[in-house]
Design brief:
17 helices; six-stranded antiparallel β-sheet; Beta-Lactamase; alpha+beta; disordered C terminus; 23% strand; Alpha-Beta Plaits; 525 residues; 3 domains
Length: 525
């Protein structure tokens, strides 16, 4: 069953992340090449996501070889992984059940059935994420962590979800195999999928499908609509062709509308004259003017197995859409749904990987990554940056007297105050515990004083209240400037941190710039 789908998809076991994959030929009919590119891109993305979490993590993708009864290595970013693992391997069975973490110190001999033999420290651990097809395990993503203390709950959540990407990629490939849509159309779809980056935003994904549909069909208007979550309305996400009052971002009720039928019932609509076939429906709204649209073909967009949208083609003439058109558009609706699902899942994983779960701000690792990027950008354009470190004053008393839930509430509220007081271009992160970090882009320290002091004042003035308990909070901050004080990230953080502690020594509830003796309110004058 897997060979039919995976066919020529294998990647050489010694191919590692960082080695540029062979470029697929962008030629209609190069079916296996575009299929291979799609599969390869999914694997590469999974491994790069792991590295984004923590550069120390090592990962590999394995797929089943039914004839040999082994899982064969497809791609890895380390030479630690074996080329094949027996299907009967007990540790793999444990890893793929739930979200188990397996530790080297507890599985000495069995450990060498997963990895190349070497001297282990005993601190290593490994996680697995299953790759499924029709509910059956077709493979897995394996991630090895050098020291179990490096594994955070957030990382664990991401690492145990990575197999979903490849699972949905395989479902797309199998769907293509099962549909008789012509080799040209199949190649076009594969080419689109191979060139779609899972990091693409919704607009780019929809545009790619629009261009594909243009090459396959004739229509006077193409409309893509998605249901609004927990709402009885849908929103138009894309319009191509004839325009009327229902443009992009227009909302309409899914009940009673022609474009809502595939969403509500998951049914395909094909009609040479929709006025006659669906006399009790409007295209979008009961108050809409008379439409010249006649022939229609609409299919559901399935996301995670549920109808969440509609893909509609309309003609001003009665020229009918064919059964072949219906089959092809139905397939495109499924593939579009999978692509949008990838986007949704990627956003979830990206948020988990890059953001602090409590405050929803950037986490420590992502802050450092962004900081390094901003230094390079500032160096290139000769800009200044203000680097700020904040720490809540006497925060421990909150957890000790009012409990950790109250402390969490304070952290979340402070995070919102900080986010509201900076621009979207600026960087805001939870640095750790009750400590926060901000980078104000293209800004000097003196210019940043207004923002910094406003944050300090807003926190001091905020009426913190939860479960009948009210408290007053203050915060202290320190600031350094790139490149005036240093061009080195670690040094800038160190200088800001020291200035913050100096502010605390002066009684807190203030902000100091590195190198100044006086309080920030004076420096800013």
């Amino acid at each position: 069953m897997y060979n039919e789908v995976l066919g020529s998809l294998s990647i050489s076991p010694d191919q590692e992340i960082g080695v540029k994959p062979t470029e697929p030929e962008n030629v209609i009919g190069s079916d296996s090449k575009t299929t291979g590119a799609l599969y390869e891109n999914l694997n590469l993305l999974v491994l790069s996501t792991v590295k984004a979490l923590n550069p120390k993590y090592e990962s590999a993708v394995y797929m089943i070889d039914p004839e040999s009864q082994v899982f064969s290595l497809q791609i890895s970013n380390s030479d630690s992984f074996l080329n094949s693992i027996q299907v009967s391997n007990a540790m793999i069975g444990t890893l793929l059940k739930g979200t188990s973490v397996v530790y080297q110190k507890d599985n000495g001999e069995a450990w060498n059935d997963l990895f190349e033999s070497k001297t282990w420290r005993g601190s290593e651990c490994v996680l697995g994420s299953p790759i499924s097809l029709h509910g059956i395990t077709a493979g897995f993503v394996l991630t090895k962590i050098g020291h179990f203390s490096d594994l955070t709950d957030s990382d664990k959540s991401v690492l145990t979800s990575l197999g979903k990407y490849i699972s949905y990629g395989l479902e797309n490939l199998e769907t293509l195999e099962k549909h008789i849509i012509g080799e040209d159309n199949k190649a076009r779809i594969l080419d689109l999928l191979a060139n779609l980056n899972i990091k693409s935003d919704e607009t780019r994904i929809l545009d790619q499908f629009k261009y594909l549909i243009r090459t396959v069909f004739h229509y006077d208007r193409l409309t893509v609509s998605l249901q609004i979550e927990n709402d009885s309305n849908a929103i138009i996400k894309l319009v191509d062709g004839v325009e009327d009052e229902f443009l992009k971002n227009s909302e309409f009720p899914v009940n009673g509308s022609l474009h809502g039928i595939p969403i509500v019932n998951g049914e395909t609509i094909i009609s040479q004259n929709w006025h006659e076939s669906h006399p009790n429906f409007s295209r979008f709204s009961s108050s809409e003017p008379e439409s010249d649209i006649k022939s229609v073909l609409g299919v559901p967009i399935l996301i995670a197995g549920e109808s969440k949208g509609s893909l509609f083609m309309e003609r001003l003439t009665g020229r009918p859409y064919t059964d072949s058109d219906q089959k092809t558009l139905d397939l495109l609706g499924r593939v579009l749904g999978s692509s949008l699902y990838w986007l949704i899942e990627y956003e979830k994983i990206y948020q988990n990987a890059t953001h602090d779960g409590l405050s929803k701000l950037l986490n420590h690792q992502t802050y450092k990554d962004r900081f390094a990027e901003e230094i390079q950008r500032a160096k290139r354009f000769q800009h200044h940056m203000a680097v700020l470190i904040f720490d809540l004053d006497k925060f421990k008393r909150i957890n000790d007297t009012l409990g950790h839930p109250y402390g969490d509430y304070v952290i979340q509220t402070v995070a919102k105050i900080m986010s509201k007081n900076v621009r979207t271009v600026d960087v805001v992160a939870r640095y750790g515990g009750e400590e926060f970090a901000i980078i104000l882009i293209n800004t000097t320290a003196k210019m940043a004083m207004v923002v910094a002091q406003r944050i300090v004042n807003n926190i001091a003035d905020y009426p913190f209240s939860m479960d009948g308990s009210e408290v007053t909070m203050t915060i202290s901050g320190g600031m350094a400037e790139y490149p005036t004080h240093s061009e080195d990230m670690k040094e800038l953080i160190k200088l800001s941190d020291q200035a913050m502690y100096d502010a605390k020594q002066k009684g807190g509830n203030g902000i100091l710039i590195h190198g100044y003796e006086e309080n920030a309110t004076i420096v800013g004058d």
